Amino acid sequence: NRIMVMPRRFVQILFICFFVVNGITTFYVSSGRFKKSGFLFAYRLFHNCLVMILTIKFLLDFWRVSEISFHQSPLVRLAAITYFGLVFLSLVSCMGCAHRWGNRICRMLEQLRKLEETTKAHGYTLPRGKGRFLNHLTVALVALLILRLATHMFLNVKRFMMGSHHPCNCFLSECMIFAMNSLVFCIMLEICRNWWKLQSSLEKLLLENQPWENQFTHLRNLLDMFQGLVDMTDEVCVVFRFVFLSYMMRNIWSGIRVGYMLVRVCLGHSAIEAELEYLQMVFITSIQPLLYSLMMNSLTHTTDSLLETTKLAIRGLYNQDNYVEKNMEWFSLQMTEQHTYVHIFGTYRLNRALIFEGCSVILLHVIYMVQCEYTQ
């Protein structure tokens, strides 16, 4: 555990800086606390305006360069229009969420920090298997961040060496969208981490045969912290609902674009694929969101099952203390009508089942686009 403390702290600081640089948050860490900054608030306004200006410039430049290709294939033109529409929708949802719910986001992070300090003070431990799972997700998130930065750096260096001095202006917009998605990811990661610590401690408490001092008070504190995490999960769905919506729409369209371009390459339609510019943009804007969606759905599927797993874990446990048993019965009744799943406006649940639904939608639209191409 001590070996993983420093790398985890470093990753947390790294992503907090990444959120600030991309205009998502306006607070910084000082003496272990989150503090707001007027300078960072002004920087966020400047950054958001700059992102919108560069995204519009990128749209105009790309449209001018690919105008011939758009005339040759209306479907490629439709793909470009839809992509930029979803990018603007994602940017507006990120900016709106950051401006409107900035205080609630800061409050959630502060609650998670205090909860971590409480669990550390009481000696709550994370099961080794659960900790390994969360560490793997953290490493994968850092790898995607490196992939995002390295891809744009490689592309701009290659353009400069080829004599093109026009930078890829989608860099800031893609980084901003990735920063907001990573913020949601990190919050849910910490919810799972603290939940498993509480569940492990609850199981140990119920297995104690002999009552000990302050056992009842300790149990009440545990149940209150469980309820706090349930409420926070619901708050995540409320605060980031438009971010989740744009995230789902963008992932589906990224799958459709990648699938359609792969089919065109396999079928030998080289009139458009010869343009390296378009293929590079498809890779940059579509591959990373698809890889990120696999991680996100794995985490949200885990969050989905937190409460049910805890119910199953304590169902077969029995404690000789009557007060403890009564409180566990009350806790079970209280959690009957609650949940920890992540949803979008109460309609779509973000879990592994959504992957299969999304794949079916992607496959259907790829087939439709290929049929339209042959009809023309």
List the helices and strands and how they pair.
Elements: H1 2-21, E1 27-30, E2 33-36, H2 38-65, H3 67-72, H4 74-100, H5 102-121, H6 128-161, H7 171-206, H8 215-239, H9 241-267, H10 270-273, H11 276-304, H12 306-315, H13 322-334, E3 343-344, E4 348-349, H14 352-375
Antiparallel strand pairs: 1-2, 3-4
Helix pairs in contact: 2-4, 4-7, 4-9, 5-7, 6-7, 6-11, 7-8, 7-11, 7-12, 8-13, 9-11, 9-14
Question: Any key phrases for this structure?
Answer:
376 residues; mainly alpha; two-stranded antiparallel ribbon; 81% helix; globular; disordered N terminus
Return residue spans where pLDDT drops below 50 for at least 5 consecutive residues.
Answer: 1-6, 270-275
N→C terminal distance? 61 Å
Structural class: mainly alpha
Strand content: under 5%
Instruction: Give Rg in angstroms.
Output: 24 Å
Give the overall form. Answer: globular
| Alpha plus pi helix count | 14
Q: H/E element string?
A: HEEHHHHHHHHHHHHEEH
- Major β-sheet annotation: 2 strands, antiparallel
Number of strands: 4
> How are the strands ordered across the major sheet?
1-2
Give the proportion of residues in helices.
Answer: over 70%
- What is the average per-residue confidence, as pLDDT, rounded to a whole number? 79
